[in-house]
Amino acid sequence: MDLSVLNGRGAIVTGGGSGISLAFVKLLFQAGCNVLIADLRLHSEAEEFINSIGSRSDLATKGSDGTRIAFHKTNVTVWKELENLFDVYKSEFGGVPYIVCCGAGLYEPTTKGWWDEKDDDDTYLLFRVNVFHPMKLCRIALRKWLGANAEGIICFISSTSAQKASIVTPLYQPSKHAISCFTRSMAPLQDLCGVRSCAVAPGLTASPMLFGSAATLKLFDPEKDTERLATPQAVAEGLMAVAMDREHYPPGTVLEVTGPNGRRVVNMLNDPGPAANTFLTGKTVGLQDVKAWIEKERAGSIS
User: Fold this and answer.
1) Does the structure show a pLDDT above 50 at 80?
2) What is the pLDDT of residue 56?
3) Which domains does the chain have, with CATH numbers?
4) Which has the least CB within 10 A, 66, 170, 238, 244?
5) What is the reported pTM?
């Protein structure tokens, strides 16, 4: 896998302020790739990383080799803000990015979910972030690449949840089904116009998505689940591999990455499915919440 082609090029990474996407930002930067992070905020780990790599202005940080990282506050559910990312990128780095990574995502039950029904809008927030944002950003990126007569790579983050189902997280699971399917659907773009689609499908990962709230922590059993964890670094390395290693991964590949060191290509048909170590054992606790919702509605205490 030759990463030298990234030197001097650029990327846009949504959700790059934390977790897997931040780990991917670090790998891109180490390869000499300029990066525009699009997120609502920078996690403390991201701030520490940016402060450690060189001189910093209000918007951008420059490493010793001239490679730069810029941050632009972005709400990925607002399509005008997704469009604007390419203007910000052009202003900061010039031209169009070589890689666009749709990394921003939400987990249930850390956000408004199916059971609590607290969404005030016409669509679920989780779908707007996990499904609509990557699909729209891909469309915008394709238009920009075609307009510049340039090749590009569009990266997605799916999940082993794409091959599973859960009544505890009934929005998250189908959102990742959608991403795996969309990644494969975009595979013909490689031959049509030189745009490569790919995705990584992590299992349990030691990231803020899992450990960032009490709602998800109660689904995590430290005694049983800790040894199952992948690191954000390992998942990001898998994402880099599926994006850049064209010899082993054709366009449309969904690469599963699980802890501690597991990788495998997820087949569209007749796939054996993810291993047992990709399941949160604590979801039985979440099932109690589901039962409580059912009993409340049966009793008429929820309108």
Assistant:
1) yes
2) 45
3) 4-211+229-276 (3.40.50.720)
4) 66
5) 0.93
